[in-house]
Amino acid sequence: MKTKKIKFSLIMTYVAVIGYIIFLGFPFVWMFTTSLKSPMELLSLDQSLIPKKFYWENYSIILNKRGLMHSALNSLIVALVTMVLTTIVAIPAGYAIARLHKIFSRAATGWILVSQVFPLSLIIIPLFIAVRDLHLIDSIYGLIVVYIVVNLPFALWMIRGYVVSIPTDLEEAGATDGASSFRILRSIVLPLLVPGIIATSLFTFLTSWNEFFFALVLIQSTDKETLPLNLARFMGSEGQVLLGPLAAGAFLATIPSLIVFGVIQRKLAGGLLAGAVKG
Amino acid sequence: MKHLLAPTVKTRRKRTSLLSVVALLISVVATVGAMPARAAGIEMTFLTPAYLAGTVKATERIVADWNKANPNATVKVVYGDPNNINDKLATSFAGGVAPDIFVHEAASLLAFSKQGYVAPITAEMRSVKSSIQPGLWRASSYRAQLYGLPLMTQSYTIFANVDMFKKAGIAIPTGAGSLTWDGFRALAKQLTSAGNYAVGWGLKSPAATFMIMGSNFNGTFFKSLTTSPYLTIGAAELEVPNRVHDMIYVDKTIDPASILISGGANTAPFLAGKYAMIVGGSYVASDLDAAAVAKGFNWTALPLLKGITSNQGANPQTISVSTQSKYKKQAAAFIRFLAQDKNLADLALGEALTPSTRGAVAAVLTEKKGSAGWTQIMNDSSSFVLSPFTLVPNYQKWKDTVAQPTWQQWVQGKITEAQMKDKLLTGWKNIR
Amino acid sequence: MKSATRLKVQDGTIEKKRKKSSQKMYNRGAWIYALPAFIPLVLFSVVPLAKGIWTAFTDLEAGLYFKPKFIWFDNFRRLLGDSLFWHSFNIGVIWAVSCTVLSLVLGFGLALLLNQKLRFLGLMRVLSLVPWAMPPVIVAIMWSILLNPAVGPIRGIFNFLHLPGGDTNWLADFNTAFPTVVLIGAWVGMPIITVSILAALQGIPQEIIEAAKIDGASAVQRFRYVTLPAVRAITTALVALNIIWNFNSFGLVFVLTAGGPGGKTFMPALFVYNESFKYGNFGYAAAMGVVMMLAVLAMLGVYLRARGRQDKES
Q: Which residues of B touch A221 (CB under 8 A)?
């Protein structure tokens, strides 16, 4: 009786697993195979998943396209620097918001929400002028500064959430032993925060890697453009024949994020272990 | 506080890297701020939404030629995303860092001209004026001043599958004005058989189509342009929406599946032989050309549809100088250089649009001698007239929030003619 | 079961103790911790935002020589009568809520699966990130290809399985356009939720789960008393942020439907965006922004208050 029940729930679990794999994976796989179809196949009706003939030229077209690799490098620099700086700044501040005086904490969380709520299109011009006054228009550094500001509210809010879910007794013990708040943060809270920090930095990386609108208005020169700008320009407004190279570019643009995730995922499991041992 | 004085190696490294990034930021700010102006000559920025390989190549070639001939006033090309060029310009204008020269489209340029961000270039372009269609010239002007030189224009063209016509034994109409709306309906009926629609027509965004083709029946949509423009929907304005509606729901010659997608997306079923005709922007010709080369697809363009006239409203691509530019004179000279017949023809060939000057049209015709479709599209170039809507400041807003949704409902058969008319007019009144 | 309850009680006592004794300790150095984050926020977020809000009370328009006047509440008065805006506003609220709920349900489920020992776990972990790893520009293009009524594979799948509705143009049909964009929105929003909740799940010390098992707690009980409390805070945060983001987003939907058919997917953020960027009415657009901000804050206030009350009760 009991084993039957377990078996049934196991079957349901795998049905869910397969459902998720299709829902998440199919569009991606379709895009990948689209990147291997010739322009003529892309213009025909009733396309199959597997290309009739593998057409690798799409990749050479997109890779030889002036500026694609360069813009990918720009994107990588921007995303990595933004990720590191945002996380470094957000951990102590997020901790402060979670554990400090109620009034301070309320004001800060309130502000974080307000800053997210205001439609982007309204602050873009004042922001543009602020960046211009610092002579950071058309500069990768200007973009990094803006991305840090864009990511910070989310990062703070997430770190705050993870800190809140950590039981306070350890910190209590530390405080009783006379450790300073910095030491408590570094040696007690930080190890427990690792999975949360990883999730947050992953988010920061991806937001910066994918961001389009700020890059569009802040970057002027072609040699400073980021990958989404480069791809969007290639996409243009019309034209089916470009679909193959575009899919190839999209596929390539997705790879770095997946690699970052693959690396971090291992860390994520490691963080779990560390937490289990210490917690 | 002891731990602060004796940080571990790890944290120290972290802190140094943070410090070095901050230092880097400061130094970048300093260098950018202190950068000296270039000693000899000036450099102008040129923002263009060109993205098709042919147009990009032509742009590079033209700019290189110019820079070689004018080392003291060089041009630097900045490529913008064609879908977002308006946002880019709006931000740059408001932030005071606009490009010296930029390409845009007439109907959207108007707002910027009105706001004072675009420099009038009437006098500078006087030498070019005689070779440009008057309709195009007027569409790019505001209060009798030219704000952008029209470069090239898209016409709404019917593309035909020659082999399907041959098979059905139907002659392909040729010659300007030879295809009337009634004639088109009859053709579509002849080519429609059980379960097979003759026509694919992408009407996902029907407003531009209806207003531009409205000129066929002298539909103006807007009156009293110079004082305070107002919307009028009479019999003339309703002709095109009604005829399209009839072809979908009475004749059943337009595939209802095709109307829900954008113009370019019907190219695939057309190439697969699903439709004998598709209606779309002339740019579709570049996709068809590629198919013709690759698998011998046999296509042509039909003459522009004729109602009372075969005129079509023009919303040309334009090139302008911004008011904030310090080098207006040199910028205008570059525009005149770019508008030379050969240069303009090269640009237009890349996008499969009709160039603005007669000389450039002739150059494209020579280049594409063998193609009946191209010849037809170029021969239609005299049909471009001023569409009043390009001169109405609130047109964009009305189009986005009222006309587009209303006409989408109309082509999907959700509302009656009276409701359509009422929605369009009430919507206009609600817009300030 | 018992140990889970014990943990709760413990939590409660600590909570009280902390408030009394160690507030001082926690407060020391607060400003120093928060400063590096708050300086850039003030410069590039507070100041521009304040400017934006001020604009809502002026008649500012785009223009090289335009001198704005302070006009108090005129923009808001005019906005009250703007039926087109309120129509779009309603769409935005429904969109934000339905998209958030759907992505939360789907993302939560996926996180629970990923936290178990199952086959295909590595594959699922990578796949769970795919929607997020793709630039949104690409996501929109990809889905419009998939859903293309003439050449898209979705149509092929429907026909292959003999399901009705294969010829539906999902993004343009009046009945299906909105649900379709909600589903795509959930597809895009899922990974953030999955990864964040998974991180919280992995933060649960293994021995608590083991202890609960030994005490004889059923799977449902473990979920109710161990899992849910552990992810409560992060879920609240995610829901709040997702509602905001979805309410303010329009890029994805715009590329998919351009606001159509017949205005069914015309998001309020697109409305504001057009008003300022396309028509140059900065003052009026800012007033719309302020109204949207207040609306979202009210929505969040209700939600967060309800969550807070629940927290107290449990």
A: 76, 78
